[in-house]
Known about the structure:
- It is a single chain.
- With about 290 residues, the chain is mostly helical.
- About 60% of the residues lie in helices and about 5% in strands.
- The strands form 2 sheets. A two-stranded antiparallel ribbon has the order 1-2.
- The relative contact order is 0.13.
- A hairpin with a 6-residue loop joins strand 1 and strand 2 (about 20).
- The protein has helices spanning about 1-5, 30-70, 85, 90-105, 110-115, 125-130, 130-140, 145-155, 170-185, 205-210, 210-215, 220-230, 235-255, 260-265, 275-280, and strands at about 10-15, 20, 155-160, 165.
- The chain contains 15 helices and 4 strands.
Amino acid sequence: MINGYKTPFVCGGDNNTGKNIYYPNTSIIQVLAVKNFDDELRLLLLEYITKAEGELRTLAGYKFDFVNCPLGMTWRNQEAYESKYVLNGRVSEMIEKVENELKKSHLEYVDFYNKHHHEEIPTWIVVKVVNFSTFIDFLEYSNCQVKNAICELYSIKYEKDNVVRMDYALLIGSIHWLRHVRNACAHNERIYSICRKGERIKEGYINSMLRKAYARERNQTIFDLLIYFKYYLDEKDYTCLIQTIKEMLFNLSKELSSGVFSNIRGSMGIKSMSDLDELLSFPHHKEYELF
């Protein structure tokens, strides 16, 4: 526990001994408070990531069939995907991965289709059963009508040269970060300081609505996840999530010195507690009627 959560308590090092120097009055109780905070954060984020993931899988499967079934195509037809991913071989690799993952599944309804209707396994089963990373490939390689519908629903778009464009990079990149954090949560890893260096996506909230200090950052952190949730959660769930995190941070701040707490907040990518209120105040668009 000490090695896993000592970093925010370190304020320097002894050049002679090589040992860490800790903030005054650091105690095991304070380290435990950080661990407990991290455990609570892990469960909270996993709950909301799972909710967003489930909706994404369902909607992508529905739209895929809506676009392709009238043309007599299923998820096995390469013509149902964007041509550039067909030509570079990624679609055939993805279909093979789907087949393998379906064969390995022990779910009752998958076993039934594998035994009796192998050539007719419906898309809803595919998107529900495959690994999250395989699903992301499925969505990325799907034709533009499918991705456009998802981007339109979640307002994942940008304006360039007075033309509104769907932001595929944000769509796929944000879902990959949801997957990365979800996997870390599932494996009981330390969460508050999770980071991917140089992977930040400069989307609309960061580019034009948050203060400029955020636009200068290059790493993906928990704060980026909170931004992405702005797209994928409805307003009620999003408000509940942010308010819960604010309360958790406030309670933690009462147990730690200001320096230690600032280190933890900073590791989450949050420059100021007021920035969480900023996220809540920003416009929220999730337009199911456009789907």
